[in-house]
Design goal:
This protein has about 150 residues and is of the alpha/beta class. It is built from six helices and five strands; from the N terminus they run H-E-H-H-E-H-H-E-H-E-E. Strands 3-2-1-4-5 form a five-stranded mixed beta sheet, covered by helices on one side. The radius of gyration is 16 Å and the shape is globular. It starts with a helix and ends with a strand.
């Protein structure tokens, strides 16, 4: 049994798992309006998960709109409030993963998304078609968890 299997609450994983690491980006780690202070504290745990098998990791990156006017619906009002976090004004390097995680790509994969949800687009369908039935989820706004897919 691996260290990961021993740490999981619901028993060992089969071979059909992926580690989904959500939005561990510089824009949330560094001094921006969206700074997430606890990212520094959880980063070593996320690195340890990736190191178990980097090729089984998918990093999501949230890509904000170019400008507030490129957002739709209520999001337009939201980005008028957070205009500094649009691509027109944000340093493009802040969209990158934090350096401690960027070094794992490749073999880890990147999944860019225009919304805060990791499930936007084709990710869910791609995981299902690949036979993935278990996720280990880590990252920004998440606690470590194992859940069925």
């Amino acid at each position: 049994m691996t260290k990961l299997d021993q740490a999981l609450r619901f028993g060992p994983l089969r071979e059909r798992w992926v580690h989904l690491c959500v939005d561990m980006q510089r824009m949330f780690a560094e001094a921006t309006e969206w700074h997430t202070p606890w990212m520094e504290r959880v980063l070593p745990n996320v690195v340890a998960l990736v190191e178990l098998d980097p090729a089984r990791t998918i990093f999501t990156r949230f890509i904000p709109p170019q400008s507030p006017d490129d957002a739709v619906g209520a999001w337009r009002r939201y980005y008028h409030k957070w205009g500094t976090m649009t691509r027109d004004r944000l340093d493009p390097q802040l969209i990158d993963l934090v350096p401690e995680l960027a070094r794992f790509v490749p073999p880890a994969l990147l999944e860019d998304k225009p919304v805060m949800s990791a499930w936007h687009g084709s990710l869910h369908a791609r995981l299902r078609s690949a036979g993935i039935d278990s996720l280990i989820v880590s990252g920004r706004r998440r606690r470590f968890a194992c859940s069925p897919l």
